[in-house]
Design a protein that fits this description.
Subcellular location: Membrane
Protein name: non-specific serine/threonine protein kinase
Distance between the termini: 65 Å
Strand order of the largest sheet: 1-3-2
Largest sheet: 3 strands, antiparallel
CATH class: Mainly Alpha
Radius of gyration: 21 Å
Strand content: 5-15%
Enzyme class: transferase
Catalytic activity: L-seryl-[protein] + ATP = O-phospho-L-seryl-[protein] + ADP + H(+); L-threonyl-[protein] + ATP = O-phospho-L-threonyl-[protein] + ADP + H(+)
Shape: globular
InterPro entries: Kinase-like_dom_sf (IPR011009), Prot_kinase_dom (IPR000719), Ser-Thr/Tyr_kinase_cat_dom (IPR001245), Ser/Thr_kinase_AS (IPR008271), Ser/Thr_Kinases-Pseudokinases (IPR051681)
Length: 255
C-alpha cells in the first residue's frame, strides 16, 4: 500500500500514477490492484514483494548474490523498462532508481513508483524542476533541460553499476555535489577494474552526455543476454572442473 497525504499537488500526482499503473501488465512491473480513498488519505494497493527494494537488498541486507543473479536482475529491470518505452503512448519513468525497484521471493525485480512518470506524445518531456534523486538522474534532467526516454537509460546505467559493483552511487557526496559533478563537470561514476568489459562498456554508453548516443533498452537487453550466456557457461565449466577434481580425489588410494 502506497499512501500520500491529500494536498492538491499530491492528489494530482496520485491520479497521474493511478492512470498509468492501471493500464500496465508485465512480469517486471509491480501489479496494480486498486485504490483506497478516505477523507485524509489516498492509497494505491499493489502486489506485495517480500524482499523489499533492490537498494536495501544490495546495500543493507548483507546477502551475497553471485554475478549471474545480479545480471538477471539487471535484465529484469531492462525488460520492465523496454515494456514501458514500447507502450503506446510511450511511458517515461523519470525516477528510475534502485529504491523504486522491488524484489519478489524468487528474486525477480519489478519496476514501481510512477509518481513522476509521463506519457510521451512528442519528442521531449518538460522538466521544469529537477524532481527525483540526483544520484540516478541524467545530466540534462539535473539541468532542467528538455528530456526524453533516454534519461531513463542513464538511470539504468547507474542501477547496473550498483548491481555489478555492490557500491552505492556517489557515496560520500551530497546532493548538490552530485549535481555539480554530473550536470556541470560531465563526471561519471568510476567503474572498478575487474568488471566484465562488455558490462563496463554498456554502463558508459548509458551515461553518454548526448541522450541520442545512449542505447535503447532493446539494445541493452541484447548485450545483457549475451553476457549472461557467457557467465552461465563459465559457471558450468567451473562446476564441471570441481566435480572432476572431487572424483579424482575420491579415486586416489588412501594411505
Amino acid at each position: 500500500v502506497i499512501t500520500t497525504q491529500e494536498t492538491p499537488e499530491s492528489k494530482q500526482e496520485f491520479l497521474s500514477e493511478v492512470t498509468i499503473m492501471r493500464r500496465l501488465r508485465h512480469p517486471n512491473i509491480v501489479l496494480f490492484m486498486g485504490v483506497i480513498t478516505t477523507q485524509d488519505n489516498l492509497a494505491i494497493v499493489t502486489e506485495f514483494l517480500p524482499r523489499g527494494s533492490l537498494f536495501k537488498l544490495l546495500h543493507r541486507s548483507g546477502i551475497n548474490l553471485d554475478l549471474r543473479r545480479r545480471l538477471r536482475m539487471a535484465e529484469d529491470v531492462a525488460k520492465g523498462m523496454h515494456y514501458l518505452h514500447t507502450c503506446n503512448p510511450m511511458i517515461v519513468h523519470r525516477d528510475l532508481k534502485s529504491p523504486n525497484l522491488l524484489v519478489d521471493r524468487n528474486w525477480c525485480v519489478k519496476v514501481t513508483d510512477f509518481g513522476l512518470s509521463r506519457m510521451k506524445s512528442g519528442t521531449f518531456l518538460s522538466t521544469k524542476s529537477a524532481q527525483g534523486t540526483p544520484e540516478w538522474m541524467a545530466p540534462e534532467v539535473l539541468r532542467s533541460e528538455k528530456a526524453n526516454e533516454k534519461s531513463d537509460v542513464y538511470s539504468f546505467g547507474v542501477i547496473l553499476f550498483e548491481l555489478v559493483t555492490g557500491k552505492i552511487p556517489w557515496e560520500g557526496l551530497n546532493a548538490m555535489q552530485v549535481v555539480g559533478a554530473v550536470a556541470f563537470q560531465d563526471k561519471r561514476l568510476e567503474v572498478p577494474e575487474g568488471v566484465n568489459p562488455q558490462v563496463a562498456e554498456l554502463m558508459k554508453q548509458c551515461w553518454a552526455s548526448a541522450p541520442g548516443d545512449r542505447p535503447s533498452f532493446e539494445k541493452i537487453l541484447s548485450v545483457l543476454r549475451g553476457v549472461i550466456r557467457t557467465v552461465t557457461q563459465e559457471q558450468q565449466k567451473q562446476l564441471q572442473q570441481q566435480k572432476q577434481q572431487q572424483q579424482q580425489q575420491q579415486k586416489q588410494p588412501k594411505e
